[in-house]
Amino acid sequence: MEDLFRSYWWLLFPFAGFLIAAWGNFLRYRRQKAVLDLIRSYVENGREPPASLVSQIELVGDDASMTTGLRRGQTPANYWSLVGLFSMMAAGFSLASFLGVDGGSGAFLIVALTMAAVAVWALICAVMKKRDGGV
Questions:
Q1: 99 pLDDT higher than 80
Q2: Of 41, 36, 124, whose CA–CA distance to 86 is shortest?
Q3: What pTM was computed for the model?
């Protein structure tokens, strides 16, 4: 059992990420349920719920999020900054691979090619991005 943990200790990080995401989804569910219960109490009493309360409901698959790819509170990505970031990372890993920092295994070259591919993707997204903020 100790060997198993020693070999796969790094799996704790993805599992922790899954647990954090699940906890966040559970809290979002409870918040939405509380808002809906409050709106239901307004409707049962024959009163109109306040607009600020109704605006707190996050609709799943609403038209705005489907067309822009954004949820409420998110801002569009600045693809030009991603082009710069991933280009610099690709250049750094290429240099490290050229200098043999990885012991000649080629691992840094694979990472550099992956970073370069992401930089090209970000460049395509930056060029194709509409001026009004939509993608």
A1: yes
A2: 124
A3: 0.47
